[in-house]
Amino acid sequence: MKKSFLALILLGFMSGMVVSCGDDDTNSFDDYKNVTDDDDDDDDDGGNPSGNDSTIVVRDSLAISIVWDGATAQLTGDVDSVTFSQSGADVTITSNTDKFLELTLSGSTTDGSLLVNSLKKYGIILNGVSIKNADGPAINNQCGKSLYVTLADGTTNQLEDGASYAESVLDQKGTLFSEGQIFFAGTGSLTVTGNSKNGIASDDYIVVNGGTITVNVEDTGSNGIKANDGFTVNEGTLSITVAADGARGIRSEARTTIAGGNTTIVTTGDCDLSDSEDASSAAGIKCDSLFLMTAGNLTITSKGDGGKGINCSDTIKFEGGTLVAKTTGSNDDGKPKAVKGDKGIIVSGGSFTATCNKSWALDNGVDSETVSDRITIIGTPTTKTLEKRKVIIEYQ
Amino acid sequence: MEKRLIILLLTAFTVVTQGHAQTESGMIMGLEVEKKVNKQIGVGLEADYRSRNDFKTTDRWSVGLNADYKLTKWLKADAGYTFLNTNFREKITTGTSKTKWRPSYWGGRHRLHLSLSADHKVWSNLRVSLRERWQYTYRPEKEVDRWKIDETLKTKTLDTDYVRDGKAKHQLRSRLQVEWDKKRALFTPYAHVEFYNSLAVEKIRYTVGTDIKLGKQHSAGIYYRFQDMRNQDEEDSDPDMHYLGVGYKFKF
């Protein structure tokens, strides 16, 4: 008995060691394609919101044309190389090849959309298209890599979302939403209307390199443009109007750069008082990191109560270009400021104008009754007007 | 008699484990060496091996040292250290649009414990004991694989440099045991229930088994254990377990 019990234990040990050598992980992901974050290193622009290195290295490419016609859409081209589905005029494209996907959109629909899942960066050419989606974004890009939006020469394009969105497991943060970066280019025009959320939104950064882009967000919506990781304008014309209380023309949670182009922003909303402890004011540009302007034209008018022109929780550096920031709203619930940089306002070039009909034109975080304490001026400007509600600095 | 008892335990184990589809089964195998230094002090060395996933996956192995001191005839104190090499289960986190998968991995843990045990013979050969044990377990941080899963594209991307944070945990274990302790008997059958407390009851173990005296210095043991998991941390959740345990002990 004793021997047999000892033998049982030894047998148990040995068989246990041999049998229990597997793992109990799910095998669901075994067949999934293994990709690496640096797959695009050869032409990567990740982490560079300036967009100056956004040249596309074209591998083999796929070209698909989508033409909307009312309640339907027609897909032609390399459709056999991707997976696609249609529900009326709602089109979903899934591409997991290494090839560069180029989608050309045209036609018109009042109840359609485009949803794209792509393994690699890809491009959309807006070639005279009008998409209105009654219950979600007009274009929803679920690819975390770059999306190149080209506005075809001579075309006018329109995107509009619905008054409410259908529930989805996917993020859908605006009329044109992208998980990855968005680069705008081209010479055509695009009008984006937001009825429910942001006009254009990216969970990465946004760069405008061309085109004429108009963004109108109704008072039922939110910001004009929302970017998590930065926003840059290099060229092109950008016109933004937002109406909701607390809405921002451009909401950037990282660095914001104006390096060219013509940007006009109008906000009409008052302070958002829905949070009783923290009223949130509307602003032309609201950014959480450095605001830098080196060239181009930027005109901001903030008309609502307590509205801001530029509201930056970091430093504002103005080195060139022309800035006109104006607030015309009252100060019942908030304090309007034309230019507010919590860690400083530094002006060293260009033409800088900030006006305000209530409160102070400038706020650099220093609580001083002297205007010159509220701004750092580098060099010798040719014009220097420093008044409480009007500041003009100009260099030759 | 002996064979019948073992067969009975094995049969009970088979029947119970087949009745619970949501649980897993596993084996615990233990080896223990104990040295009595004098009437009051003893030291021991033990090794432990466990499996899970219906015996198919090694769950952990451990080695430990302990020392005990008999404070009175009925009260004993005990302290020890155990190193546990654990096969941590995989974890799948599903977000609104992203899934993250951390495969299972091997990692070490360190455990210290302090115990007080009291026992009392209540009737004839029936002995009741209560053990209160505080244990502290530390899991050092470790760089492990984690994958970002795209269910739509059917792709996975390795999340490089992912570090699973270190974690410390205090638990109070309370064990109440009854045993039939008859002198010179071959078998010492027992049953106990043990609660694991860490602000809330996290685990309850129900064990029934017997020690088998193989000689003056040698003994073996066999038992069935059901481990009922409750109020677990989300990141350490384990299923309920049925264990078949065997052990060998050498005293000198």
Structural class of chain B: mainly beta
Look up the CATH topology of chain B: Porin
* Number of DSSP-assigned strands of chain A: 32
Averaged pLDDT of chain A, please? 89
Unreliable spans of chain A are 40-47, 52-56
Number of strands of chain B: 17
Fraction of residues in β-strands of chain B: over 45%
Radius of gyration of chain A: 26 Å
Give the overall silhouette of chain A: globular
* Oligomer description: heterodimer
End-to-end separation of chain A: 105 Å
CATH level-four homologous superfamily name of chain B: monomeric porin ompg
| Most extensive interface | A-B, 36 and 42 residues
- Major beta-sheet overview of chain B: 11 strands, mixed, barrel
Structure annotation, total helices of chain A? 1
Structure description:
The complex is a heterodimer of chains A (396) and B (252). Chain A contains 1 helix and 32 strands. By secondary structure, chain A is mainly beta. In chain A, the strands form 2 sheets. Chain A has a 12-stranded mixed sheet with strand order 4-5-7-9-12-15-17-19-21-23-26-29, with no helix packed on it. The termini of chain A are far apart. The radius of gyration of chain B is 21 Å and the shape is elongated. Chain B has one helix at 2-18, and strands spanning 24-36, 41-52, 57-70, 75-88, 91-94, 99-102, 105-123, 126-139, 142-143, 147-150, 155-158, 163-164, 167-180, 187-198, 200-213, 218-229, 241-251. Chain B has a single domain (2-89, 103-141, 164-251), classed as Porin (Beta Barrel), CATH 2.40.160. Helices cover 7% and strands 67% of the residues of chain B. Chain A binds chain B through residues 1-2, 5-6, 8-9, 12-13, 16-17, 19-26, 29, 31-37, 94, 96, 117-119, 142, 169-171, 179, and chain B through 2-3, 6, 27, 29, 49, 51-53, 55-59, 87, 89-90, 92, 96-97, 101, 103-104, 147, 149-150, 152-158, 160, 212, 214-215, 218, 220, 246-248.
